């Protein structure tokens, strides 16, 4: 039944002048892009990310990403990353 509905929809759009070659069933599947967690960054990469954060709320979101995203299986911060997070928090609080 679903295939018939798709064919009917394709024909409907063709009659309206739409290009039916780009319907969802004819396009190739999208390959998932591997995602890197912030805890996997090197220290220099992590420092670069932190330097671009300008709001304390944004920093808190990054710091508590496991809770906020609801993904407790994300790797915890290592000791060096925690120190950098605290240092950036203190910098942002000092700027206010």
Reconstruct the topology from this structure.
Elements: H1 2-15, H2 43-51, H3 56-63, H4 65-69, H5 79-95
Helix pairs in contact: 2-5, 3-5
What labels describe this entry?
single chain, 96 residues, mainly alpha, 0% strand
The count of β-strands is 0
**Shape category:** elongated
What order do the SSEs take from the amino end to the carboxyl end, as H and E?
A: HHHHH
Query: How would you state the average pLDDT, rounded?
Result: 83
Q: Kindly provide the radius of gyration, computed on alpha-carbon positions and rounded to a whole number of angstroms.
A: 23 Å
Overview of the structural elements:
This protein has 96 residues and is mainly alpha-helical. The protein has helices spanning 2-15, 43-51, 56-63, 65-69, 79-95. It has 5 helices and no strands. The protein is elongated. The relative contact order is 0.11.
């Amino acid at each position: 039944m679903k295939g018939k509905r798709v064919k009917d929809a394709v024909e409907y759009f063709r009659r309206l002048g739409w290009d039916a070659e780009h319907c969802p069933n004819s396009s190739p599947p999208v390959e998932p892009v591997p995602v890197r967690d912030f805890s996997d960054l090197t220290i220099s990469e992590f420092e670069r990310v932190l330097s671009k954060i300008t709001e304390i709320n944004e920093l808190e979101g990054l710091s508590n990403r496991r809770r906020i995203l609801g993904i407790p299986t994300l790797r915890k911060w290592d000791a060096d990353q925690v120190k950098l997070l605290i240092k950036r928090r203190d910098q942002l609080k000092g700027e206010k």
